[in-house]
Amino acid sequence: MNEIFLDQRSCQSCPIRHRAVCSKCEPDELQMLDRIKYYRHYDPGQPVVWAGDEMDFVASVVAGIATLSQTLEDGRTQMVGLLLPSDFLGRPGRVTAPYDVTATSALTLCCFRRKPFEKMLVETPSISQRLLEMTLDELDAARQWMLILGRKTAREKIASLLTIIAQREAALQRRAPTNGSSFELPLTREAMADYLGLTLETVSRQISALKRAGIIELEGKRFVTVPDFAALMDETGDDSDGGLPV
Amino acid sequence: MNEIFLDQRSCQSCPIRHRAVCSKCEPDELQMLDRIKYYRHYDPGQPVVWAGDEMDFVASVVAGIATLSQTLEDGRTQMVGLLLPSDFLGRPGRVTAPYDVTATSALTLCCFRRKPFEKMLVETPSISQRLLEMTLDELDAARQWMLILGRKTAREKIASLLTIIAQREAALQRRAPTNGSSFELPLTREAMADYLGLTLETVSRQISALKRAGIIELEGKRFVTVPDFAALMDETGDDSDGGLPV
DNA sequence: TTCCGCTCTTGATCAGGATCAAGGCGGCTC
DNA sequence: GAGCCGCCTTGATCCTGATCAAGAGCGGAA
C-alpha cells in the first residue's frame, strides 16, 4: 500500500472534490482539501480494513472495486456493500470500521485524514449535504438488496445482480444500459454467492441456466453480453416499472 | 388522518427539534419549525403512503410503529425498515415515496412541509449533520438485516429479531436490555415473516421451538419475557462481541 | 349467547437450494 | 511439457423451510 500526496488537480473521479467543493470553487477549500488528501493503492484480494479496526481516514473510490462484508461466528459471510468508483468509504464520527473491506480488483482510494475532514464537514455545509445524499442512495440500494435476499429465488437473484452491475457500469459512463451491451463481471462466483446469500455452486448453475435460456451470453467465465436487456429484467421478478431510481 | 398544528413546546420526542434545533436554542429556528410543523395520526393497519405516491412532507415518528416494505410483481413482500419513535421518515430532495409505509400500531407523525424543511436544511447545517448521522445509523441497521436475511437460519432469524426489538425497546428508555425483561411484540407473525424473509408458519414454529427450549417465555401471543438475555444472543449466530454499535 | 373472522399453531408433504463429490479449464511456475 | 493451483462446472443426495391443510383460541358483532 502506497501513499501518494496529490497535486491540486489530479483527483478526477472524487465526488467530494467535484460535486461538492469544485462546484463552489472556493479556492481556500480546495487548498485545505489538498493538504489533507492522499492516494492509497491496494492489490486485488488485499484487505483495506477489518471490522473493528481503527480507521483514521475516510475515502472515495477512484478506481477498482471494493466490497463490504460481515461474518457470523461460524464463518458464514454476507457481503453488504459493493463500492465502485465515486462511492464513499467510511463514516464521519466513527473511528472503528463496522465491516470488513476488501479490494476485489486493483483499488485506488482517495483518502482524507479523519480529523481535518470532519472539521471541513462542519465548515462546509455543501459537503455534508452531498454526503447525506450519497448515504441516502446507499440506504436505498441496501433496502433493494434486502428484497433480493429475503424474497427472490436463486434465478431472480442472479438476474438482479447482473442487472445492477450492468446499470452501474453504464451509469459510470453516463448512459443507460442497452441491448447487446457487454461488461466484465467484477466478482468471482464465490463473491457473487456471498453477495446473494447463495452458495457458489448455485450461482454457477443459475448462470449456466440463464445462458442456456439465451438471456445472457458468456465469453470465458467473466465476460457477459446481454442481447435483450428487457428479457433480463423480466427474470428479476421486480415490478416492471423498474423499481428504485438509481 | 388528522392534522393538528403544534404550539412551540408540544413535540417531545422529535429528534430534529430536540437533538438538532433545541440543542442550539436558536429562537428563530424554533419559530420557523413551528410554522411548518404539524401532527398526523394513523390507525393501526392504515397506510401512510404507497410507493410511488407523492410525499409533500417529511416526518419523525412521535408514537407508534410504522413499517417500510417493498413488493415484487407476484405479491411477495419484504419489509425493509421498522420505524420506532424518534425515527425519521422521508428524504429531502425526493418527491415520490420509494416504499410502502404502513402504520402497524396507532401512529403519530410529526410532519414538516417539504419545501420549508429543505430550505431550513440548507440554512441550518446542524440539522443536515444530524440527519446524516441518523441516515448512517439506518444504513448500518439495513446492512445488519442483510446479514440476517442472507445467511441466518430460521431460528437465528427469530432470535435476532427478538434481540433487536428488545434492544430498541430498552434504548427508548435509555437502558440496556436485562435478564427477565419483557416486551410486547409490536408485529404480527405475518409481519415478522415479511421482515425475516420467512413464512408465517415458520415464524410460529420457531417461536414455539424457542419457547420449548426455555430461551423465551410467552404470555398470550405477543408478550415475551427473556429470562437469560445472553442465551437469546447465543441463538442469533452473531459474533459474541455484540456486532454493530446500536 | 352464537357466529364470524382474524391470528396463530401444528401436522404432512414437497421442493429449492445446500452439501458432498468429482472433474474440467486455464494460467502459472519449474 | 508436466504439474499444480485457483476458479468454475456438473452430478447425486440431503435437509431446511415452503406449501397445503386443518383446526384452536379469542375478540367483536348481531
Task: Please describe what this structure looks like.
2 copies of one chain form a homodimer. Chain A is an alpha+beta fold. The first copy, chain A, has 2 domains: 3-144, Jelly Rolls (Sandwich); 154-234, Orthogonal Bundle (Arc Repressor Mutant, subunit A). In chain A, 41% of the residues lie in helices and 23% in strands. Chain A contains 8 helices and 12 strands. Chain A has helices spanning 15-21, 27-36, 114-123, 125-151, 154-172, 189-196, 200-212, 229-234, and strands spanning 3-5, 37-42, 47-49, 57-63, 66-71, 77-83, 88-89, 100-103, 107-113, 181-184, 217-219, 223-226. In chain A, the strands form 3 sheets. Chain A has a 5-stranded antiparallel sheet. In chain A, a hairpin with a 3-residue loop joins β11 and β12 (223-226). In chain A, α1 crosses α4, α3 (114-123) packs across α4 and α6 packs across α7. The two termini of chain A are 32 Å apart. The model of chain A is unreliable at 1-10, 17-31 and 242-246 (pLDDT under 50). At the A-B interface, β5, β6 and α4 of A face β5, β6 and α4 of B. Chain A binds a DNA duplex (30 and 30 nucleotides) through α7.
List descriptors.
homodimer; 246 residues; alpha+beta; Jelly Rolls; Arc Repressor Mutant, subunit A; 5-stranded antiparallel sheet; 4-stranded antiparallel sheet; globular; disordered N terminus; disordered C terminus; DNA-binding
Largest sheet of chain A: 5 strands, antiparallel
- CA radius of gyration of chain A: 19 Å
What structural class should be given to the helix and strand makeup of chain A? Answer: alpha+beta
State which percent range the strand residues of chain A make up. 15-25%
CATH superfamily of the largest domain in chain A: Jelly Rolls
Bin the helical content of chain A. 40-55%
Biggest chain contact: A-B, 50 and 50 residues
CATH topology name of the largest domain in chain A, in short, is Jelly Rolls
Total of domains of chain A: 2
Oligomer: homodimer
CATH class of the largest domain in chain A, named Mainly Beta
Low-confidence stretches of chain A at least 5 residues in length (pLDDT < 50)? 1-10, 17-31, 242-246
Q: What's the pLDDT, averaged over the residues of chain A? A: 82
Helical stretch tally of chain A: 8
Protein name (chains A, B): Crp/Fnr family transcriptional regulator
GO molecular function, one term (chains A, B): DNA-binding transcription factor activity
InterPro entries (chains A, B): cNMP-bd_dom, cNMP-bd_dom_sf, Env_Response_Regulators, HTH_CRP, RmlC-like_jellyroll, Tscrpt_reg_HTH_Crp-type_CS, WH-like_DNA-bd_sf, WH_DNA-bd_sf
Keywords (chains A, B): DNA-binding, Transcription, Transcription regulation
